[in-house]
Amino acid sequence: MTTKLFSIGFAIALALPGVxxxxxxxxxxxxxxxxxxxLPLLSRDQLDAEGQRVYDVIIGKDQPNRSGPVGAVLYSxxxxxxxxxxxxxxxxxxxxxxxxxICTLIAGRAFDNQYEWxxxxxxxxxxxxxxxxxxxxxxxxxxxxxxxxxATVIRFGRxxxxxxxxxxxxxxxxxxxxxxxxxIDLAVTFGDYAMTAIVLTAIDQQLxxxxxxxxxxxx
Length: 219
What we know:
Elements: H1 49-58, H2 69-72, H3 77-91, H4 97-110, H5 114-127, H6 131-138, H7 148-163, H8 168-202
């Protein structure tokens, strides 16, 4: 079966014991009951020929549309296709799946996006990311005591999202540990999932009833 956009990241999320969960609220009036966002799901036959081509690339010709960024970007196929290709490329990073998922969590937490976080915490666990690393990002804890590479990626992400600048010392450490190519892959993955979080925020994407929120209250 062909790999689909966010097929790992947006799997059904299961709650972890002991984690304070953000409560699901009643859907707002502008939320579609099928997509759980402000955008109704587009079917393939609603699109023109170019849109259908992009649908086949992103979703699959014989597959139904679904909620989340996958369904949203079909409203702009010209944007949706490169959006998909960037994500596929990021998933093939020289840094490996664990660091890809760590980057998605850093971006998801930077935007406090429940939908993105709740999918990628599960994906990170499946990829073998240590729960201590996940919790450091989730609860905005110190990275002291974490493995050097994981701690450096978290510092790198926080510098980008929080400080909007990266010190020469931190940059040199990232390149030392990951190489220049790896550094770019980390930065692009941050950007990819920041873009995803922005889209999800714009459409007010809610979790479907079969998914439990894993991100604690934002502030």
